[in-house]
Amino acid sequence: MHIHLRAKPNASANVLLRAADGSLVVRLKAPAQDGKANACLLAYLAQVFGVSKSQVELLSGHTAPFKKVGIDLDEAEGQARLQQVLAHAH
């Protein structure tokens, strides 16, 4: 599955949220330098979706806040896990 999201580094905790406009936002503890935020993002998404880090790939947005991430997971299962995480984020 592919997800589009906005990464916000330097947060107090790693959190996946849905913004008011319906887009996905991930707040990350890591700073946006030397790829630390990207590495943190991929590890966090692997944890959220219950897959290994090798199953999560940054497809675009390596140096931008808007990212496209590929997750080696069935679309229906991935959407179900995403909805479950977002339901608990409030």
From TrEMBL:
InterPro entries: DUF167, YggU-like_sf. SMART domains: DUF167 (SM01152). Pfam families: DUF167. Transmembrane segments: none annotated. Gene3D superfamilies: YggU-like. Belongs to the UPF0235 family. This is UPF0235 protein Q5H93_04550.
